[in-house]
Design goal:
The chain is an alpha/beta fold. It is 25% helix and 24% strand. The strands form six sheets. Strands 6-5-7-8-4-9-10-11-12 form a nine-stranded mixed sheet, sandwiched between helices. Strands 13-14-16-15 form a four-stranded mixed sheet. Strands 2-1-3 form a three-stranded antiparallel sheet, with no helix packed on it. It is elongated.
Length: 452
């Protein structure tokens, strides 16, 4: 009779719990070195879990009440928009973003407005002193008696503050700076982040207490710590923006209570953060039409925004003309220039080409192709396009203008903003789109250049 072969020993990361059938020097999950150790074999063979009497009997899914989970407005409309209409009781929300983008300022505003609505808020600051937070609150007008502040880095003491204050909303800034005595390692290590987050989320579910956690990001933009953190929470939001501009966007990357592609728009001002419910004028230049400009309709989540694409061409004698872009995809610009020269007869190989967007917005989706092509063509021919024209379309290498996602929504937004003509895939070919603009909406700048 053959004996049963003993299972191969498993190796476990002491920081994040990742397992491997063999020893490796670097954890495949948290990327930490020398944390993978051999797991102890279970004593007495395989363990069995004894069944217990359930606390609540299982019910048919058809008998479950379909009433919508009640939501509480945070007072910041753009934040509520991203969350799906408000904060759900017991929800765990993770907000990540680059250092200095304004995460703490936004959440302090959320805490102050919630306090003004009569809900007690506990703001736990593990990175700043109470005096520093008070100075920011004075500058942004976020002072209120129902807003309680605690500067703690120990998880047990934070739980004590929650029992003492009995808040209706808890904000922890940030989860990577909190440590628990139940886990080894320094604060910020994957094991500590997992223990702190799981404890706070358990408290949120047991007490129907919404908890907002601030998360650090790594240099490649990912949330620091174990990937398990994003799986545990109900909502993952990312706060982003260019430091050169005051515009900020908050995006929902995961949302168990609403759409996961909503976007909120904010503007950083001297006295705090300001909502921008209709950012249609932020990415447009003002004044008379200029050669080398074209309006397109971009999609930020479910929100359609007009974006102005600008192009400038300069003759050059260099063997390798310059291609400088900002706010658009450089590879798509190179492709559009090739299609222009091959399919529309607009030569750019002897020109330096500069392409940029207005307002610092990033417009990298394929829907920008047609606007880039029209802007470059206008710059080469020195013709300006009327302000009531918008262009939306993806270019193929054959010169066809292809349809883009949410085309009907983009056209509806363009009509709402006063664009009477939208050039899109209905033109068929790039050359046809250029001819349509030349025949209907072109404002010539007489300099002797050939027409489109």
């Amino acid at each position: 009779m053959a004996t049963k072969r003993a299972p191969a020993p498993a190796y476990v990361c002491s920081e994040c719990g990742w397992t491997s059938p063999k020893w490796v020097g670097r954890c495949g999950e948290c990327q930490q070195w020398n944390t993978v150790v051999e797991a102890a074999a279970p004593a007495g063979g395989a363990r069995r879990v004894a069944p217990l009497i359930p606390t609540a009997s299982a019910r048919p899914i058809t008998s479950i009440d379909t009433a919508e989970t009640p939501r509480r407005a945070s007072g910041v409309g753009e934040f509520d928009r991203v969350l799906g209409g408000g904060i759900v009781p017991g929800a765990a929300i993770l907000l990540s973003g680059e250092p200095g983008v304004g995460k703490s300022t936004l959440l302090l505003e959320v805490a102050a407005r919630s306090a003004r609505e009569g809900r007690r808020v506990l703001y736990v600051s593990a990175e700043e002193s109470p005096g520093q937070v008070r100075l920011r609150a004075e500058r942004t007008g976020a002072l209120h008696d129902e807003l309680f502040l605690a500067a703690e880095t120990d998880l047990a003491r934070i739980l004590g503050h929650i029992d003492e204050v009995q808040p209706a909303l808890v904000i922890v800034d940030s989860v990577q700076t909190i440590s628990s005595s139940l886990s080894d390692g320094a604060a910020g290590m994957p094991g500590q982040v997992r223990e702190v987050a799981s404890t706070l989320i358990r408290i949120a579910k047991e007490r129907d207490l919404p908890v907002i956690l601030v998360g650090h990001v790594t240099k490649d933009g990912q949330v620091a710590g174990p990937r398990l953190l994003e799986h545990l929470v109900d909502v993952v939001c990312h706060f982003e923006g260019d430091r050169q501009t005051s515009l900020r966007f908050i995006r929902a990357l995961k949302n168990r209570f609403g759409a996961a592609d909503e976007v909120g728009c904010f503007e950083m001002a001297g006295d705090g953060i300001v909502e921008v419910p209709d950012p249609s004028a932020l990415f447009l230049s003002h004044g008379s039409p200029e050669p080398g400009t074209c309006i397109s309709i971009a999609l930020e989540g479910r929100r359609a925004l007009p974006v102005e694409v600008q192009a400038l061409t300069v003759p050059t004698q260099a063997n390798n003309p310059r291609r400088v872009v900002h706010g658009v995809d450089p590879s798509r610009v190179a492709m559009v220039l090739a299609v222009l020269e091959r399919r529309a007869g607009i030569k750019t190989s002897d020109l330096d080409v500069y392409v940029s967007t207005v307002g610092g917005v990033r417009f990298t989706e394929p829907a920008s192709d047609l606007a880039i092509a029209i802007a470059v063509a206008g710059a080469v021919r020195n013709h300006a396009i009327a302000r009531n024209v918008a262009a939306v379309g993806e270019l193929s290498l054959s010169g066809d203008v292809r349809p883009v996602t949410q085309g009907a929504q983009r056209r509806a937004e363009a009509a709402r903003l006063g664009y009477t003509r939208v050039v899109d895939d209905r033109s068929g070919k790039l050359s046809s789109a250029l001819n349509d603009i030349r025949a209907l909406h072109l404002v010539p700048q007489h300099t002797g250049y050939a027409d489109f």
